[in-house]
Design a protein that fits this description.
Order of helices and strands: HHHEHEEHHEH
Shape: globular
CATH class of one domain: Alpha Beta
Strand order of the largest sheet: 2-3-1-4
Largest sheet: 4 strands, antiparallel
CATH topology of one domain: Alpha-Beta Plaits
Length: 212
């Protein structure tokens, strides 16, 4: 096997495995999956209007990845919650929620893209009341709507989600499908592996002449 083959074959295999894991090839969610979600939400006591609102989001699935934009304002005086000190602040309550969510996200190739604290009140607000002040913002990538459906339909989701609700004074979260997303890990990893491959090829090619 030539130097070139020994370099590029592992790189192509590695990237192919990552691409397969990071991309949902299952297509849009099915009516059966949506019905199961609705049953789960009813069992949890969710309002029928809210169930209809959420299930419509899944009925309009395109099968593509999407991002959820989160504007967050934490609660300065959150209520007491079981399992944490009575004086636990919003960050401690949110940590309980994220301890559950991060593993569920990562195993489905979903992850945070941007997380940060606000450094000033909103610079531009129009047509929205009580939207001047936010404490944090976050952007999360989801492999597909199916991945989100699997997370929120799990019975284990309800308990940790209560800690998130307790930690927040207000929040706005909405999904977007990207037309430009240069932070896509498939692109970044592909460029990184390409650079590594070219450097190895240059190094090995200069070190040992390739046999003909």
């Amino acid at each position: 096997m030539s130097h070139r083959s020994r370099i590029w074959l592992p790189i192509v295999v590695l990237y192919g495995l990552f691409f397969y894991w990071y991309t949902d090839f299952g297509g849009p969610v099915t009516e059966q999956e949506i019905s199961q979600l609705a049953e789960s939400m009813r069992a949890n006591g969710d309002d029928e209007a809210y169930i209809d609102y959420i299930t419509t989001f899944f009925q309009e699935d395109t099968g593509r990845q999407f991002l959820i934009v989160n504007n967050i304002d934490t609660n300065d005086s959150p209520p007491s919650m079981p399992g944490v000190p009575a004086d636990a602040n919003a960050a401690a309550l949110m940590a309980v929620y994220m301890e559950h969510m991060i593993p569920e996200l990562l195993k489905r190739a979903c992850h945070p893209v941007i997380v940060g604290a606000a450094v000033y009140d909103a610079i531009d607000v129009m047509g929205i009341s009580h939207a001047e002040s936010w404490s944090d913002a976050a952007l999360f990538r989801y492999r597909s709507r199916r991945a989100l459906l699997e997370i929120i339909s799990s019975p284990a989701f309800r308990g940790p989600h209560d800690y998130k609700i307790a930690a927040l004074d207000k929040t706005v979260a909405y999904p977007i499908e990207t037309s430009l997303y240069i932070g896509d890990l498939r692109l970044l990893l592909g460029l990184f592996l390409l650079i590594i491959g070219l450097l190895l090829q240059l190094w090995l090619g200069g070190k040992t002449p390739e046999r003909k």
